[in-house]
Amino acid sequence: MMVDGSFSHTFDTAGTYDYFCMVHPWMSGTVIVEAAGAADAAADAAAADAAAADAAAADAAAAVAALEAEQAAKEAAAAAMERPSIDAATYINASGASVTSITANADDDSVIIVIDAEDDGELSVQLHSKVIKAFDDGSYFVLIDNEEVEFEQNGNKLTIPYEAGNERVEIVGSYAVPEFGTIAMIILAVAIVSIIAITAKTRMTLIPKL
Q1: pLDDT tens string 149-183
Q2: CATH fold of 88-179
Q3: For the whole model, what pTM was predicted?
Q4: How do the domains of the chain map onto residue ranges?
């Protein structure tokens, strides 16, 4: 073939074909012929491999997050267990209104008394140090339906005026123990988080190596 000349050939069969120059035998090359669609198949395989790698990375991140959540839940449970649980209604007396429930709220260091007030009146509450403790100066503060109100205090006895229609009396101090139900919910949360973490770790072991 002359300089600047051209030549064309159509291969009918996929394969590898070597060629060389008969005049200059050291000048050689190779033609690789792929079957129709082979390039697309290779691209699809590469995309599938990339997707599998992304999924493996996502599962690994989920497993780490689950382990961190499990540890955080265990630490929260341990912190809560440092406060002995108690039934607040056993130690606190409230009179002067129709009392629906008395519960301790450890998160806000308070005692919540739910009342059914048909008329104005005064709620007399005898607190107990096993449930709630006063601030350093011996005082508490009181919220009725989330509004701070004035009240009379004589030691651990509080006299709290309320109005008809009021429902929620919250006495806030420096410390309150959790209810039995709170501890149970924390233990349940730890169990659920542990199951999630174990599931995530199990999924990791089932991921095929690429």
Answers
A1: 999 999 999 999 999 999 999 999 998 876 544 44
A2: Immunoglobulin-like (2.60.40)
A3: 0.48
A4: 9-83, 88-179
